């Protein structure tokens, strides 16, 4: 029998996650990088006979797969193959309008037949999606709600999301809301992206009044091509509602949701600044500069049940026991940090394992005496730990948590959940985290900054309220300073006049022909601006640095009103460099979606699919 691998499981105003010296982000990034298309499935695309077969194939698939365990389909199995093609047909995708997609799936089927994959089994790779605690591909159910926190009756909602490290050539993701027998309670929704795949999210609604069953299902199918893995697919489903016991008419109701961390506590700028490698003196809500090998985020909150139900302490204690003893519990929910600008994500882990687990979360769960309030507290030394694979510069990172909630009432066990997320494409999270940004930029200690009175001063001696000079204004006020470390080799430049400057690779510097550029883009021979005018660089090298690094934000609101674009600059060792605000701007520009001819970026095999997608409405 083929081995089963566990599936590893971890929207909006702004959580600002600072791994560097940067200004407060004010702009939001687009939700996708490539050309995207989305739509609603139509049951009429399947004949009555095809629909009956689809339901039968779906039932069969769920008999060999498990809830909350992501799998890849065995297309050598006729039933699994038919199921995949039916999902695509419901979305309006056919061999005529998506020729390469269907050709690639047929090739995948033939490859699996050649490998001897037998019907009734899942491919070995399908059960190998546990991954590691490091950054990885993800395909997850982000929301699975029966409307426990809304005022609308029978208000089901399901959301699925996908991400791939470095992006994908092509991504298709759908979401379906049904009862546990597979009967549709709403339309299948789908989304595809060419040259994207960083953060693909779809939402499906369900009208619970369309079924007499009290158990419901959210499922999602994905097809993707990446340079790293070629064409793959994956499928995942989750179930909620009554798990055992007599059917009762009263549905659970949840309320009084509070989130105590993370919050904007330092600057009241509607952003939560979690400082990783550097700390702003004026705006750092959570200082994590002492932890160099991971991303740690505080999470604390509570939710109450307002119906006759109570939280099932027996089920919760069993969940804790299983997780702590290494027993797989895919129904434990997830807590994920997803890099929406570069793709991929990390699961919460305990920092001592190679595989992400939810025991860190569940070990910090408590119930009130009356079992009506469920609380979690991952703060201080117990803050949620994500591996250092996600310590990357991001203008927009997604923090998403699906918290599974076991409930019980009069002997009936019920599974519910809430979703906390800052995914802008998720339509109804129960709580919206603020925006997360991850940035890097600073100057080495000892760097001399030109002050307004004409004298230089070491950057580490500067403080808010001091004044610096630049070419556009003889005096700009320092509004904030940052200090920290840099783990990546820094950029050393020297010019023909003998000046030298050591800065982090993301720090902006004024180039004569190109305007502000990041230090990593400098080359020997470039002309840069200095206090004495343009000067040619004679050396651009990388250099490890173990000392402190610093940055500043300059210009009060009144002073900036008199300046032009990119003019909040300072002289550092004589070179004209941008401050944290300029650095933030160019980080955002570097992460903007690609522009230009899509066909020039796509492999030729996808050209026809892309061109035909432009004709679909």
UniProtKB/TrEMBL annotation:
This is Hint domain-containing protein. It comes from the Bacteria.
